[in-house]
Design brief:
By secondary structure, the chain is of the alpha+beta class. It is built from 7 helices and 5 strands.
Length: about 190
Amino acid sequence: MPEARPEVLDFLLTRRSRPAKTLVAPAPDRAALMPLLTAAARSPDHGMLVPWRFKVFSGAALARLAEQAAARAEALGKPASDVEKVRNTFTVAPLIVGVVSAPKPSPKIPEVEQRLSAGAVCLALVNAALASGWGASWITGWAAFDAEFCAAQGLGEGEYFAGFIHIGTEGVAPAERDRPVLEAITDWVDA
């Protein structure tokens, strides 16, 4: 039987993402971010295809992202409130790690498994950041999947952002929120 790690289970039972709008500087520097990326890269990856990669945005790159997203929203005819919302997505936190879903051709590993692996990377990165004392939040939104916006960030055909992981220092502790009622979402199948 494996050795129990009750402190890890306790962390998972009490973890809480921090809203991106509450994250402030400082954010982890490269040296502090590398262990978080390393932990995230240990996510399940059937076939060891590494169907994801990281794009780390900070400083002027965040302002550029914000303006590109706002311009794209305007080009798509989105309402002014949506233009501001997408602009703010990229200006509220001091650091954003874009997790790129980048499936690889494989006769054995379906694309859906590779996309799910990228999602696992997103959650692992949020949890690694939280466990290290940073505030973190996983955000997507329409821009994460917009081919033109993604191409402007250097993504190839068929690639998109599985998530924008906002990381920084917690400015305000969030209130606890309701959680699912396990009895309502769990079926026990014995036979």
